[in-house]
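Hello Y.,

Per our agreement to keep a running log of every chain we model this quarter, I'm adding this entry. I've kept the format consistent with earlier entries: sequence first, then predicted structure.
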Amino acid sequence: MKNKNIFYILIIVIFLVIMFFLIEKKNVVAPISEIKTVENTFNSKNLFNLSINDIKYVKIAGKMLKVNLALTGEAQEQGLSGRKSLKENEGMLFVFNQTGKYSFWMKDMNFSLDIIWISEDFHVVYIKNNASPESYPESFTPKQDAKYVLEVMSSFSQKNNLKVGDKVEFLSS
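Predicted structure for the entry above:
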C-alpha cells in the first residue's frame, strides 16, 4: 500500500513538472524565424505584407538603403562589429521579435554610426547621431519602445534631415 501511494505521488509530481515546462514554453516569445510577415503601412496605394526575409532595402529620409538583416540573437550581437567600413547607401537592420528598449554599444567597431530606432508602426522613435567606437562601453537606449533598429553611416541622419516621427518603409526591391 505504501509503495502504491509513493508511485501515485511520483506520477503527480512528474505531471506537475511537465505542465510547468509546457506553460513556461507558451510564455516564451517566438524566435524571429517563426515570425512570418512585417506589415508595411506606408505604401499609399495598397497595404501589403512583406516577409522579413524579403526585406532588401529601407527607405528613410527619402533615401533608399540596401540593408543586411540581423534576425538572430547571434547576428544581432555581432552587428557591424569587426567590419572595416560601411558604404553611404548601406545599413544593417536589426529585427526584433517584440517591441522593447534595445540598447546598443560600439564594442569592436571600426567606424562611427548613426543608430536609428524604429517603432512597430514604422516611425523613427530615437536617433543616436555619430556613435563612435571610442564611446564603448557606453550604451545607447531609446526612451520609447522600438521593434527595429537601423545602423547607418555616421552623419546620415544630419545630412538627410532625419528626425523623430519620420516614416520608414521596408522594401523587397
